[in-house]
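Q: What residues go here?
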């Protein structure tokens, strides 16, 4: 499944609102809005829902994490092969809620690339984002941890973090796409992020826990197609 930019990537996290059937319905809504507005929107469901969601919708599906272990005797690990087989086209790595050692991030990026899976590596600061970009992921997503789930967007509260991340990352890794996230709840948060140089957003509670996710997604899409 092709990913284009600007990208709206919706992380389902482990919210009950996006588990199982509810996650499928949300993915169908995301697909409809994405088509209607011509904006690339992707979802990152929980592992157990990847197969089902990938079968039901034609939008890019990401996993929220994976492990670099090869197939074989590695009980309990989530191999890139299993993610690919389930129908995902990429993965998040090193999310603030699932941090990894740098060598594990490097191995995970390599293994994913070998299998044709996209990688979106999260970073909590511009400096970490710059460092991780040199490991050659497809995307780096900057998320100030204190704003995650706060409803106060990175683009309003910390625009300088987006600007400096884009500058710092592009100076060493020009082909790496820079996304940002944390606290994004409305269209203006998305359009400001783009104005600041971001190539997409990573969003969770603003969509998953919204009373009317469709309304929010339309607001995001409108802000990008203006
Ligand atoms: O992965 C996205 C994320 O950490 C941001 O969460 O709830 O602030 O949109 P949220």
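A:
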């Amino acid at each position: 499944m092709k990913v284009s930019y600007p990208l709206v990537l919706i992380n389902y996290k482990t919210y009950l609102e996006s588990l199982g059937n509810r996650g499928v319905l949300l993915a169908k809504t995301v697909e409809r809005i994405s088509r209607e507005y011509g904006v690339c929107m992707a979802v990152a469901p929980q592992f157990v829902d990847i197969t089902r969601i990938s079968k039901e919708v034609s939008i890019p599906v990401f996993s929220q994490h994976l492990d670099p272990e090869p197939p074989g005797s590695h009980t309990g690990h989530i191999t890139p092969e299993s993610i690919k087989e389930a129908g995902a086209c990429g993965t998040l790595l090193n999310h603030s809620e699932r941090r990894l050692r740098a060598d594990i991030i490097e191995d995970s990026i390599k293994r994913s690339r070998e299998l044709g899976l996209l990688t979106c590596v999260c970073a909590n600061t511009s400096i970490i984002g710059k460092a991780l970009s040199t490991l050659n992921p497809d995307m780096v997503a900057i998320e100030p941890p204190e704003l995650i789930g706060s409803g106060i967007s990175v683009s309003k509260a910390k625009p300088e973090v987006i600007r400096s991340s884009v500058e710092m990352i592009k100076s060493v890794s020009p082909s790496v796409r820079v996304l940002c996230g944390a606290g994004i709840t409305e269209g203006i948060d998305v359009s400001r992020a783009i104005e600041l140089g971001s190539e997409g957003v990573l969003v969770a509670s603003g969509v998953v826990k919204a009373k009317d996710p469709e309304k929010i997604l339309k607001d995001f899409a409108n802000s990008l197609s203006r």
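A: Context that may help when evaluating the design: Residues 154 and 182 are 6 Å apart (CA to CA). The longest strand covers residues 118-123.
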